Amino acid sequence: MAADAPAPLPPPRPPLPAAPRHVHLTAIAGVGMASLAGLFRAAGVTVTGSDQAIYPPMSTVLAGLGIPVREGYGPESLVPAPDLVVIGNAMSRGNPEVEAVLAAGLPYCSLPEALMRFFMGARRRAVVVGTHGKTTSSALLAWVLHAAGGDPSFMVGGASRNFADNYRLGAGAWFVVEGDEYDTAFFDKGPKFLHYDPDALLVNAVEFDHADIYRDLEHVKTAFRTLLARTRPGVPVVASADFPAVHAVVAASGRRATWFTVEDAGAARGAPAPAGDVWRAHDLRDTGAATTFTLVAPDGRRWEAALAVPGAMNVANALGVTALAHAIGVPVAAAVGALASFRGVRRRQEVLGSAGGVTVVDDFAHHPTAVAGTVAALRARFPGRPLWALFEPRSNTSRRRVFQQAFVDAFAGVARLTVAGVHRQDQLGQDERFSPEELVRVLGERGVAGEALDDVDTIAELVRREARPGDVVVLMSNGGFGGLAAKLTAALALTP
Asked: Helices (H), strands (E): how many in the chain?
């Protein structure tokens, strides 16, 4: 077969079992797949898995669940033959394990199919979507429902600090799920969130991301328009008024939405003023221990609210969650009370510890909007302290030049920036690849100190040697960053 010939079509898919006793998950160490594995275990199903790059925290989670995970992919993973194989979206034709599944005629499905068929279909589904904020918002919504006595089920894409795990099978009516706009599987290139048939829908930011599968912002908007068009009439839709593309998506769908907005964020991005029912947040302040704000309902009622997590972006998450919770029957006072006890999500502005006056924070930010939000949040939480950002261009978008200039603006508020090497840079041509050196150079012209360093051990040693009392060091990566968090914890002797 020629090298550029298309992959052969897979054979027809076998029917899925009604009640599988043994489920095998490929690419099991991804956050979503590991959580699905936990749900199957909670349901009494035997679970096995395979992956080629397994690292904490998911490796620790899977070990704690007692799930055997095979390093690498191959037919050996399918012995004994499982009743069902869940194929992660990182897998493609040509992978030896995928080909073995097809050759053996084993039943297989995607993660969202498995969620709907075996866990969510009989429950009411609260779906949280958006290019930013969906992990924190879905974790917070699950906590609000739990605190209000709803005993929800949930699966979110990060480790909520209010629960033992980032999945749960509760006895209540609602299942909270983070709806991902990324594609589903090699046999289903549509967004995952199109599988979930929401009974309540929260739409956060809509911006360009996932440059490996979306051509541009219009392509992203098409996915969200499709979701809104498929959402059944009468289902409450709560949407962020602070992003122009959200207005465009809602308008094009013909749906009515309840809006939420934080102070002047929408105007700053060029979003139109929302009309109709609008939830608002005013008077944001950071006390050093909490972010406080005034929450105003569409009818004018006001509540004083507080969040332990910092920043306007988390206030936006809290506002959207409160509005959606109200729409599905949770009293506003109960939701506001739950906000105060929300502890956040690991790797979202998570303080790892301090030593010698240096504080180290771990964060998942990898999109310019999220980076800018984290920088602003940490400057508010630690006023007057120099902020040193350590950034790994790892996501499929941040590895590309598409946001080269946007990252200049996003990091403009830091005192120092250290940029690691582009993850798997050999996969991208030089003209397409993001340039750490250019980012450091342009920011240097604006007075921001910095360096581009490929080696993570070198970065850890640099921080150990040059961090000064008062510095706040923040790691920013959507992956493992070469174990930098653990290296800094050891090098600085951090204490929680």
From this structure: 15, 23
Residue 80, domain extent: 22-109
Straight-line distance from the first to the last Cα atom of the chain, in angstroms, rounded to the nearest whole number? 57
Strand intervals (E) in 29-187: 46-51, 69-71, 84-86, 108-109, 124-129, 153-155, 167-168, 174-178, 183-185
> In degrees rounded to 5, what are phi and psi of residue 326?
-60, -40
CATH code assigned at 425: 3.90.190.20
Counting the structural domains of the chain, the total is 3
Q: Could you read off the pLDDT tens digit of each residue along the chain, which spans 496 residues?
A: 444 556 667 788 999 999 999 999 999 998 889 999 999 999 999 999 999 977 766 778 888 889 999 999 999 999 999 999 999 998 999 999 999 999 999 999 999 999 999 999 999 999 999 998 999 999 999 999 999 999 999 999 888 899 988 899 999 999 999 999 989 999 999 999 999 999 999 999 999 888 888 999 999 999 999 999 999 999 999 999 999 999 999 999 999 999 999 988 888 898 899 989 999 999 999 999 999 999 999 999 999 999 999 999 999 999 999 999 999 999 999 999 999 999 988 889 899 999 999 999 999 988 999 999 999 999 999 999 999 999 999 988 899 999 999 999 999 999 999 999 998 888 888 888 999 999 999 999 999 999 999 999 999 999 999 999 999 999 999 888 999 999 999 999 999 8
For residues 443-474, b (16+ Cβ closer than 10 Å) or e, as one string?
beeeebebebbeebeebbebbbeebeeebbbb
Whether residues 53 and 35 fall in one domain: yes
The dihedral of CA 353, 356, 359, 360: what is its sign?
negative
pTM over 0.85: yes
Q: Residues 137, 229: one domain? A: yes
